[in-house]
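ok posting inputs for the zinc ion job
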Amino acid sequence: MSRPCPCTSKLTFDKCCEPFLMGKGIPESAEKLMRSRFTAYALNRVDYLVDTTASEKRGELDVEDLSRYCRAVTCISLKILSRQAGGPQDDAGVVIFHASLQINGKRMLHRERSTFRREDGRWFYVDGETN
Ligand SMILES: [Zn+2]
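and the output
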């Protein structure tokens, strides 16, 4: 028995993002990493968000700020709109998604084009453009 995964994949948590958050597996695609990061936001796993950010970008993260954001946000659903590369044979990938969020009681739709890079077999989040 396991609850639905917070990334709204319709899979159960233990068959989706949980192994990644527990350090028992690594996402094989940029999309799976993206999903697991959405779940990390949902579950306030700032450590996972930091660990899956590209090394050169990690210094720009404000962990306090990220932690405040995670506590304030309710992650309602995630919709992947499109993806480019980002598979097990690729070294880079792009995922475009809509995240339905609620912050301080207000619903909002976050649209982002995220860029990912694979290094030593692991996917990392590089950056994102929002609009
Ligand atoms: Zn998931």
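notes: The chain has a mean pLDDT of 96. DSSP finds five helices and four strands in the chain.
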